[in-house]
Design a protein that fits this description.
143 residues; mainly alpha
């Protein structure tokens, strides 16, 4: 196949080569806004920009949910542990265990989002238009 001929995905090798830097930016949190709004013609960049924007929105939702759940669990734990006005100190061990469990769960989810972003970067660097695992199926923003 010639270098300028489009492949099955609809982009040629020159498009992929010229768009790699922008495609990589697509997976770097808020930097995904740059290729999404700046590059509309390059199909390779556009594919990665849309995936990056979807990943960004998932990450923002994750951060908000993490903050809300962590605040609720922490408030419930601290509220049950220390009430010095009434001289009650309660059973703090169970509450602090809940904080630890919530932290571990959200830590694993955050790490998984990071791994998905790295997979997207690897796909961009290698010139592939391949959906990222699991989160690639979630399409908040479409082309």
């Amino acid at each position: 196949m010639e270098e300028n001929q489009p492949n099955q995905a609809g982009f040629d090798k020159k498009e992929a080569e010229s768009g790699k830097a922008m495609a990589i930016l697509s997976y770097l949190a808020f930097l995904a806004l740059i290729p999404y709004f700046a590059e509309k013609k390059n199909k390779f960049v556009r594919f990665h920009a849309v995936q990056g924007m979807n990943l960004l929105l998932i990450w923002v939702a994750y951060v908000i949910i993490n903050a809300i759940v962590s605040a609720i669990v922490t408030a419930a734990t601290v509220g049950n542990c220390v009430n010095s006005y009434y001289g009650y100190y309660g059973n703090c061990a169970a509450g602090f265990g809940a904080i630890g469990i919530v932290s571990i769960i959200f830590g694993i989810i955050g790490a998984a989002i990071g791994v998905v972003a790295i997979i997207g970067i690897v796909n961009a660097v290698t010139g592939k238009m391949k959906e990222v695992p699991i989160l690639g199926k979630i399409k908040i923003i479409k082309k």
